[in-house]
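Interim report, section 4.2 (structural modelling).
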Amino acid sequence: MKTFDYRRADSPAAAVGAAAAARTRYIAGGTNLLDLMKLQIETPERLVDINRLDLHDVEDVADGGLRIGALVPNSDLAAHPAVRERYPLLSSALLAGASGQLRNKATTGGNLLQRTRCYYFYDTATRCNKRDPGSGCSAREGVNRILAVLGTSDQCIASHPSDMAVAMRALEATIVTLTPAGATRRLAIGELYRLPGDTPHIETVLEPGELITHVELPPPPPGRQLYRKVRDRASYAFALVSVAGAVAVEAGEIRAARLAFGGIGTMPWRDPAVEAALIGQAPGRPAFEAAADALLRDARGHGSNDFKLPLARRTLVACLAELTRETGR
Amino acid sequence: MRIRINGDTHEVDVDVRTSLLDLLREHLGLTGSKKGCDHGQCGACTVLINGRRINSCLTLAVMHDDDEIVTIEGLGSPAALHPLQAAFVRHDGFQCGYCTPGQICSAVGMLDEVAKGWPSLVSEPGTDAVALTDEEIRERMSGNLCRCSAYPNIVDAIRDVAGAGA
Ligand SMILES: Cc1cc2nc3c(=O)[nH]c(=O)nc-3n(C[C@H](O)[C@H](O)[C@H](O)COP(=O)(O)OP(=O)(O)OC[C@H]3O[C@@H](n4cnc5c(N)ncnc54)[C@H](O)[C@@H]3O)c2cc1C
Ligand code: SF4
Ligand code: FES
Ligand code: FES
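Predicted structure of the assembly:
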């Protein structure tokens, strides 16, 4: 690990001030950043420890939503009564991620900004445009089993690894930040992430030194919720495909649908066409297949991840069946 | 910096890069916590910080001044084993023993999470009282790998203590 200057901030304003220096990173749980620093994939010259900022609370908002401090650990958020009751898909997504120990450390803000698990990104002996811009992408022609089939570019096909962010995308979360200029900024979660395009090393629209302070959830969507994660092991593995869904059925018709996807996109994925294919339709195979067609219309495999196309289809169809299943009365 | 470990206060002078695990093992001679992967993947380095289980390889020592750390050395002694240590011996919950300190610290933290009613991925939604089935134990302990695959006996040991204590 390269050495760095360690600072501890006691207020968001102080944190942003300390982060004004070049090559600074905030450290929250440290579970992604330190992993990458040990491999010298991240080489910050300054670390600003934000753990003592007063951003550890989950609060009810008057409109029926929830305001989550950026430092709330993943395990506390998953166990929070309001999350379990009103946003069960978020609780499940958090519990599907990492391990008990990691969730105790991993924070809401850090989870959003965790970096890809692409093997070549981690292997400094290989070419990777994300790690070393302009060097090439070893994954396109290499082992890309875990990588993306949607949102990719010639430069990078890395999948976004977060489970929590997929749930938050389905829940239409807003990311609240403090900018280096001291202003509060609010971003829909879909606006936070950037597609790789020609600059895969730039993953979000955040400015250097911009601090995530909160994540706000609007009131829960109507209907039943679920998060389903398909992976190589039953536990403690990243998603190959995941689906976060909330669907409401009334009088035999799908009235509302929110669907977001993990494992298949270069960012936590949501496509309005998928939801449009369902609204007003009777729950059933034709509507579910149409939704999958919409999701995968531009999807492209790269060899060892080709299986994700049929897997995403089957997972989506199974989730929709579950979400719309009539419960015995 | 000042750090509290197993009830003792230590004044230490460490490089900012030092992980909590390296502080314990290399600076303080507390070699019970093991280094398996050094990347958060195996759980051998699990310790308790203010009662919560974490991977000590993925946190910096400097981030923990004034925190209360408990390692395997602080849970019990050869003369007075912690109930989980005794249960691991009774049930043969290890072969080489390398993962065992992490397994036991993790199980201590895990049982506390269960007592607080924290759900797991396999818990029945909407219930606060967790029924600690074998499936629950396996899911909640999935961050602790065992190369010797002593898993069945590890589950037996934890179930034994949970049944007695809860
Ligand atoms: C073995 C292993 C398995 C895992 N499995 C999963 C899994 O299955 N699913 C999953 O979703 N995740 C998984 N993870 C990843 C884990 O969820 C992330 O490491 C964690 O959420 C990151 O949070 P953190 O607080 O530790 O972030 P840190 O490591 O502290 O920070 C990550 C990044 O975010 C920045 N940052 C942190 N907080 C802020 C803030 N408030 N404002 C601005 N920038 C900030 C940091 O500068 C850094 O760049 C796994 C990790 C490991 C090691
Ligand atoms: S897919 Fe992206 S992260 Fe992986 S090697 Fe290619 S450029 Fe790097
Ligand atoms: S050594 Fe820390 S998890 Fe493996
Ligand atoms: S007993 Fe050998 S690794 Fe678990």
